[in-house]
Amino acid sequence: MSEFDLDYFLGTWIVERSIEDARGQESGAFEGTATFSPEGDGLRFDEVGTVRFAAYRGRATRRLYYSRGEDGSLHVSFADGHHFVALCFLDGATRDLHHCGQDLYEITTVVVSPDHFEEVWRVHGPAKHYRATTGYSRVRD
Questions:
Q1: What is the DSSP string of the chain?
Q2: What is the per-residue pLDDT across 67-90, written as a single tens digit (0 to 9) for each?
């Protein structure tokens, strides 16, 4: 495993996400920004924007926390503090699984360049079956 610098994420990113629901054959998108800011021993991630899915359109937000694990990986936690995924970057990419009830989230993150990274979520289970592809592009001052 290669230790990855948390500082890579610092700053504001433009977020573009496509969402494809395999069950309902519907699609959607999210457009907004994500800001990584120092908090405690790690970073706070705040995402804000607009989601549209089928006929729905509305504001969406989420907050996560990134911290360095003892093994050198980056630990991502939900706002309430419970574990989400661990990012163990090898050659600029990482993959982890997250169980949410009976649903399984397979999350792949790839660092494309110093100013761009991508996430792909494949979610399967009795309650959900979709793929979300997100591009993050750094906002330069």
A1: -----GGGG-EEEEEEEEEEETTTTEEEEEEEEEEEEEETTEEEEEEEEEEEETTEEEEEEEEEEEEE-TTSPEEEEETTS-EEEEE--BTTEEEEEEEETTEEEEEEEEEEETTEEEEEEEEESSS-EEEEEEEEEEPP-
A2: 998 777 899 999 999 999 999 887
